[in-house]
């Protein structure tokens, strides 16, 4: 065997273990590609180096510990080499996202690799383009259930939300499910592949993950972004969000009360309006024995607003006898056994039923004078009798918030909306302002169906057309010049139409049309659907019966829908920019505000 092939076996055991696994007999053969490495001179020795682009939350020490033969044998020596071949990294505690560095892997003897003297060598590795198919053998088939979130499924297998293990798990999920473009929008019943946690134990796991990282641009030269010593510097998320939104609207579109670095238990306590005791010790006397010592840092206690307490512990950390001692002194204490790293949703699923004896629901309907509002969410529950119902959802993006007018409507129906945002960097409440503002309140004019002239005028004007009432029309008839009053609808580009509501009699309509005018006759007493059908043929309208509106910018499984009996009308000729809702029932003022924000005019028809 040639020397450079022997070297490849020595320096890349991680990759070759992956090769053996992927190319074992009986499995389909994949194709290698050549990865480029650099050879740097350091104190008269050749150092094989891996070019690397710094990712968010990378630590220099962690990067160096994960790579190469030098680091394993002599880490201080490895650090010295790293400093010398990366002169731009002046402070080992400050590296930047997208910064390009060289990671020393191995000291080379002269002639070890082909092309070594040129400063660049290539070594065969597994092609990333084939990873999605190959990694399926380490995936578990799964059918998405109602209420599932991909982020929760991944965190249960790879660690808490936002951790390095979680981020790797999400990258694996995307590689295994390339057909899923948006992990936050997967329907119940969909068949997906979840990465097997045992993949973390494979020797090639870290290299596969490194190869799967996206490439990035050169590092910034401005050190003002270096805000966190010891890890890749980045601009805090709340500042980024504010600056982006300021550029568009001049103010943040969503107000969020952020909490940084909260533990999962602290988040659950904040969401449930509970207190948490996780520091210090409690001592409980026992007859004939030493006092029972309870270390709150290991077995924290969560206290609800009604005084009930929950001791969160691993099953092997507390015996039934110790549990009995605790409940002698804390009669309202309940022991809740938790896994090693409980997910936030897991804790809420266990604790919310303690607040509401009926548990939590995923769906709730509100009927209001013909309006049908359906809430779909993660947790719908009533903390105690007499209190408002809580409508709680956990989102990954603040833009998924429930609109303020919808919150105000639900509040008037004894439902409190609570939107919690969970990002890799921080967590917090979306702040809703449900108090009436000084802004104008949109109106909903009411028309009688027996007055089609008013209905047509309001409809076409709100769709953006020009409408003139009682226009004098002069036309020849039976040898005479006849004058009459009609209504003129301007269609744009010098195109007009006369609309008659039964005033023109005999052959007058034919006589007018012979002059080049088009006449649309709408008879008094026609039902709204018949009037809309006539106008729809002439104006190319799109008409939807009993429309359903999805009120928030988020997946329907956790969204709010409003169904209004009536018609939603838009003009295809005008690009659907303006819409008109013709409602058979009164629309609540909060929904009128919502429709006004969505550029939808509302007309009540009776």
TrEMBL record:
Protein name in UniProt: LysM domain-containing protein
Upper classification of the organism: Bacteria, Pseudomonadati, Thermodesulfobacteriota, Desulfobacteria, Desulfobacterales
């Amino acid at each position: 065997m040639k020397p450079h092939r022997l070297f490849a076996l020595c320096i890349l055991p991680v990759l070759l273990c992956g090769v053996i696994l992927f190319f074992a007999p009986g499995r389909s053969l994949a194709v290698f590609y050549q990865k480029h490495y650099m050879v740097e001179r350091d104190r008269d020795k050749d150092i094989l180096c891996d070019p690397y682009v710094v990712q968010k939350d990378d630590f220099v020490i962690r990067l160096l510990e994960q790579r190469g033969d030098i680091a394993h044998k002599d880490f201080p020596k490895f650090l010295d080499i790293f400093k010398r071949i990366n002169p731009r990294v002046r402070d080992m505690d400050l590296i930047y996202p997208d910064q390009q560095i060289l990671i020393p892997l191995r000291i080379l003897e002269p002639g070890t690799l082909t092309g070594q003297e040129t400063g660049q060598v290539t070594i065969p590795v597994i092609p990333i383009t084939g990873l999605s198919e190959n990694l399926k053998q380490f995936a578990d088939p799964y059918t998405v259930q109602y209420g599932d979130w991909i982020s929760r499924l991944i965190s249960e297998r790879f660690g808490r939300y936002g951790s390095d293990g979680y981020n790797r798990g999400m990258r694996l999920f995307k590689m295994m499910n390339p057909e899923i473009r948006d992990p936050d929008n997967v329907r119940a019943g969909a068949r997906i592949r979840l990465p097997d946690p045992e993949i973390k134990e494979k020797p090639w796991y870290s290299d596969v993950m490194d190869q799967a990282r996206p490439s990035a641009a050169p590092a910034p030269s401005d050190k003002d972004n270096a805000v966190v010593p010891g890890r890749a510097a980045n601009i805090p998320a709340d500042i980024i969000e504010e600056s982006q939104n300021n550029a568009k609207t001049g103010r943040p579109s969503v107000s969020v009360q952020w909490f940084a670095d909260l533990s999962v238990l602290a988040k659950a306590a904040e969401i449930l309006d509970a207190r948490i005791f996780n520091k210090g010790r409690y001592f409980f006397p026992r007859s004939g024995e030493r006092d029972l010592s309870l270390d709150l840092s290991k077995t924290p206690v969560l206290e609800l607003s009604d005084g009930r307490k929950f001791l969160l512990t691993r099953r092997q950390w507390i015996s039934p006898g110790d549990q009995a001692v605790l409940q002698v002194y804390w009669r309202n204490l309940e022991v809740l056994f938790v896994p090693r790293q409980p997910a936030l949703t897991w804790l809420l699923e266990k604790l919310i039923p303690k607040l509401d004896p009926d548990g939590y629901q995923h769906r709730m309907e509100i009927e209001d004078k013909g309006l049908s509002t359906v809430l779909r969410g993660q947790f719908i529950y009533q903390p105690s009798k007499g209190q408002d119902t809580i409508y709680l959802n956990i989102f990954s993006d603040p833009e998924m918030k429930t609109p303020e007018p919808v919150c105000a409507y639900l509040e008037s129906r004894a439902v409190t909306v609570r939107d919690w945002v969970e990002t890799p960097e921080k967590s917090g409440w979306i702040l809703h302002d449900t108090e009436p503002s000084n802004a104008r309140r949109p109106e909903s004019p009411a028309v009688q169906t027996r007055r089609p002239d008013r209905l047509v005028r309001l409809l076409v004007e709100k769709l953006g057309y020009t409408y003139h009432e009682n226009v004098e029309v002069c036309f020849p008839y039976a040898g005479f010049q006849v004058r009459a009053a009609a209504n003129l609808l301007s269609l744009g580009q010098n195109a007009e139409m006369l609309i008659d509501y039964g005033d023109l009699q005999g052959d007058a309509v034919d006589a007018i049309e012979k002059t080049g005018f088009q006449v649309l006759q709408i008879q008094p007493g026609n039902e709204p659907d018949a009037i809309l059908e006539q106008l729809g043929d002439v104006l190319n309208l799109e008409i939807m019966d009993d429309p359903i509106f999805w009120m928030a910018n988020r997946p329907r499984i956790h969204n709010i829908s409003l169904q209004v009996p009536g018609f939603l009308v838009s003009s295809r000729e005008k690009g659907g920019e303006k819409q008109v809702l013709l409602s058979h029932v009164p629309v609540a003022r909060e929904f009128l505000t919502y429709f006004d924000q969505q550029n939808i005019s509302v007309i009540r028809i009776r």
